[in-house]
Design a protein that fits this description.
This protein has 676 residues and is of the alpha/beta class. It is 59% helix and 7% strand. It folds into 4 domains: 2-97 and 553-604, no CATH class; 103-218, Nucleotidyltransferase, domain 5 (2-Layer Sandwich), CATH 3.30.420; 231-437, no CATH class; 446-544, no CATH class. Strand 2 and strand 3 form a beta hairpin. 36% of the residues are buried.
Length: 676
């Protein structure tokens, strides 16, 4: 629409549709209330991922409950139109926030939807220094930007999709001057040094930093570390146990019965009462976390799984081929090194699983990511420094083994050999995980990241005695980001002086040791002396915008698959963008106010909100056509039949009569030919 293009193409807040929408609305109070209710219904439909065709049914339901929603704008087209203006309000808020921000970065990733169409998702990351979180910290905002469908899957196609996204949001004139980083996965189409998306972006934006998602690197490091080890057998074991019960409700019921019986027979220390019974799938967006959860489920329900498989082997109704397969499973799985290996890997992967969760936070910044990586390294070092029998999960498993070598009522095989095998190899597995973490998490921008941490990590300022603390880091950062800082009208010559003054103020009046670094920065951004540090605070704002991981993108892809399902696989690109924006970014239903969207909708063009419901036109007939009023003789005769005719036809009498009549007609025709 003309209004949308005009509004999104400007950055002047006074000319945006949101400000213009506060002009006087022509609706009376009663009409406005009815329109609000219909906008609420449309918002609910979009937020819950329902079809637009539900609009009429929900309006009818409201009327049945005595709610007056009016007689117009109650169909799917009206719902789509309402959603369009609801999204316009959300888009304008984002554009205004980006116009206020001096720097921002993007996170991009692609996936194929249910219609086999490639969808490219964009998230934008910026710092909201003036608005604190609930616990008084600066807010690193990571918002949904848009979704686009690239014409080509090449780097050139992705770059064109990038520019298309900027134009769609109306910031095509300013995004290159403010963009300082792009986060993506490690595919060659994204990070290729010569012809990848990163190379194409650097030709236009030389200072931009393209980060390989840390969460993806973490998963790859664990795969590298455990490749070719005993974990490959454990991973296959987890998969086999999962598929035994995946599509069999009967087996799941039998398993639950066995678990309930074992809970009565065994002590709670041997089999936990809480927790599920079915094996967990050891794969997903949080690869390591799913692995650890699946390992712990096996450890807690190992006796139930083996007992159930043994009962299936003895069941005469089970096929012989299935029995042979189950016998092979039981023989392998009862070996003690399988159970103890699950416990050992659950302990070794636990630090990495905690890091995996942190790297997938919505508002992850560089300091939080690096701090957690160092904590993970320390936790792995602690594990390597203790005895094997003292590992938490290993100790729990060994404590459950009885004197007759039974675990949860199941006798394990080769106890001593299995224990010795895992005990002799676990240090090597731990060292491999640590080494692969170090290799994979290294980046070409390591010096730049170190300088950024020096500036942002306020808890280290108190311990520094060097008079030039932080100045070398500031020099390097200013040299790299000179162009965007100058575009933001920052005086680079004053940054070091302001930095020294700010650090002196913080060490004198703030608790840098106990307060979180984000809380310290919020106080610095909003204190009375903040105007004196405008230049150095601009550099801090830039550093907070560096993207570290794409965890939120993966969750938005899950929402996309929920919205664009098999029953809605023909959604257009713009409709999908609107639904995703409401589903992901819009406030919850109880906190949403429809007034701004209604004003935008009402001021767009003349609306007939008080028009009465139209009557359906009558079916027109041609008075000159005899076919519509009368039937031919053949049609009328064809409609008349009796039960006697049906019985004669079934018995064969009518068939013989028809055959004789056909023969008589044939003889008459032959006699006519002879006469001629």
């Amino acid at each position: 629409m003309r209004l949308h293009k005009k509004s999104l193409g400007t950055v002047a807040i006074s000319s945006t549709p949101i400000v213009q929408s506060f002009a006087s609305c022509s609706m009376d109070k009663a009409t406005l209330e009815r329109t609000k209710k219909k906008f609420d219904i449309a918002y609910f439909i979009a937020k819950e991922g329902l079809a637009f065709t539900k609009m009429k049914a929900l309006c009818d339901l409201q009327e049945r409950h005595g709610v007056d929603v009016g007689t117009t704008y109650r169909n799917d087209h009206a719902c789509s139109n309402f959603v369009e203006f609801i999204v316009l309000e959300e888009k304008e808020k984002l554009v205004q926030a980006l116009s206020r921000s001096r720097f921002y970065s993007f996170q991009v990733d692609s996936s194929t939807d249910v219609a086999n169409v490639e969808e490219e998702l964009f998230l934008v990351m910026y710092l909201e220094s003036s608005t604190a979180t609930a616990d008084g910290k600066v807010q690193v905002v990571n918002k949904f930007f848009c979704v686009q469908q690239p014409t080509l899957s090449t780097a050139e196609g992705l770059y064109q999709c990038f520019e298309k996204a900027m134009k769609y949001m109306g910031i095509e004139d300013s995004w290159k001057a403010k963009t300082i980083g792009v986060g993506c996965d490690g595919t060659s189409v994204n990070l290729g040094k010569k012809n990848g998306l990163a190379a194409l972006l650097k030709r236009e934006i030389p200072w931009v930093i393209c980060f390989w998602c840390l969460a993806h690197r973490l998963e790859l490091s664990i795969k590298d570390a455990l490749s070719g080890t005993f974990f490959g057998f454990i991973d296959e074991f987890l998969l086999q146990v999962y598929y035994v019960y995946e599509r069999s409700p009967k087996k799941c019921r039998e398993l639950e019965e066995i678990v309930s019986e074992l809970k009565w027979c065994l002590d709670s220390t041997e089999m936990p009462i809480e927790g599920g019974t079915r094996p967990l799938r050891a794969s997903g967006t949080r690869f390591i976390t799913h692995k650890v959860a699946a390992l712990n489920r096996i450890i807690d329900r190992f006796g139930a799984y083996i007992s159930h498989l043994l009962s299936l082997i003895e069941n005469p109704k089970v096929k012989s081929t299935d029995k042979a397969k189950l016998c092979g499973y039981v023989k392998k799985w009862k070996n003690f090194k399988v159970l103890l290996g699950c416990a050992c890997f659950a302990d070794l992967l636990k630090p990495a699983s905690i890091l995996c969760k942190v790297l997938q936070e919505d508002e992850l910044c560089i300091v939080r990511a690096i701090e957690q990586i160092m904590k993970t390294k320390k936790n792995i070092d602690k594990l390597k420094g203790i005895e094997f029998e003292s590992l938490p999960t290993v100790r729990k498993v060994l404590a459950r083994i009885t004197e007759d070598r039974k675990y949860q009522g199941v006798k394990v095989l080769q106890y001593e050999a299995g224990k010795e095998y895992v005990k002799s190899n676990w240090v090597g597995w731990a060292g491999g995980i640590e080494a692969c973490l170090k290799d994979r998490l290294q980046t070409e921008h390591i010096d730049l990241l170190s300088n950024a941490i020096t500036i942002l990590a306020t808890n280290g300022w108190q311990r520094q005695e060097d008079a030039r603390f932080g100045c070398p880091a500031i020099d390097n950062l200013c040299e790299h980001f000179r162009a965007p800082l100058e575009n933001a009208q920052i005086d680079l010559s004053l940054i070091e002086e302001e930095w020294d003054d700010m650090v002196e103020y913080a060490t004198s009046y703030l608790n840098l040791v106990q307060d979180d670094y984000k809380a310290v920065w919020w106080k610095l951004f909003n204190c009375a002396d903040a105007k004196k540090w405008n230049n150095v605070l601009a550099l801090v704002e830039l550093l907070f915008c560096l993207p570290m991981a794409n965890g939120r993108l993966e969750r938005i892809f899950s929402s996309l698959k929920f919205i664009k399902s098999n029953r809605r696989n023909c959604l257009k690109e713009e409709t999908l963008d609107r639904l995703l924006r409401i589903n992901v970014e819009a406030p919850v239903f109880s906190q949403w106010n429809p007034e701004t969207a209604i004003r935008l909708w009402s001021n767009d063009k003349v609306r007939r909100v008080t028009q009465k419901e139209r009557r359906r036109p009558r079916c027109r007939t041609d008075p000159h056509s005899s076919a519509s009023t009368t039937m031919s003789g053949e049609e009328s005769e064809a409609e008349v039949f009796s039960l006697d005719e049906w019985l004669q036809w079934v018995s064969g009498d009518v068939v013989e009569e028809n055959v004789s009549e056909a023969e008589a007609d044939l003889q008459d025709s032959e006699s006519d030919v002879v006469c001629l």
